[in-house]
Structure formats: structure tokens, C-alpha cells
Amino acid sequence: MVEFEAFDVKARKKVKIKDPEIVTLKNGRVAVRGKSPLTGITVYRILSKEEAEKLQKRKKK
């Protein structure tokens, strides 16, 4: 799986997402949800349409 980075508000810096999970938000956007290895809080990264399409193509293969 691809490694994603997200901004950890508590640590005030970007971190690599631990245990990433692809989710669809209420508005239809695709995001990655996971835990921050530094603080343990849940972090999100909203994906661009291109990134979301690439992930969906990988899942279909």
C-alpha cells in the first residue's frame, strides 16, 4: 500500500499515517484515515481526484 502523510494538529507537523484506511466522506470525497504515530490521534488526508482514481484502479486489479 502507498504511504500517506497527514498533518497532526496536536504535534503541529506532518506525519506518516499508521494503519491507513480508505474512506468516503459524506460529500463523496475520498480520504485516508489513520492514526498518528506520535500522538495517537486520528488524522485524515483528503485525496485529489487523480489519487482516488489511481487507488480504485489498484483495487480492481
Polypeptide structure, described:
The longest helix has 12 residues, at 49-60. This protein has one helix at residues 49-60, and strands at 5-8, 13-16, 18-24, 30-35, 42-46. It has one domain (5-60). The two termini are 13 Å apart. The protein is of the alpha+beta class. The protein is built from one helix and five strands. A hairpin with a 5-residue loop joins strand 3 and strand 4. It has a three-stranded antiparallel β-sheet with strand order 3-4-5, with no helix packed on it. Strands 1-2 form a two-stranded antiparallel ribbon. The chain is globular, with a radius of gyration of 12 Å.
Question: Brief overview, please?
Answer:
With 61 residues, the protein is an alpha+beta fold.
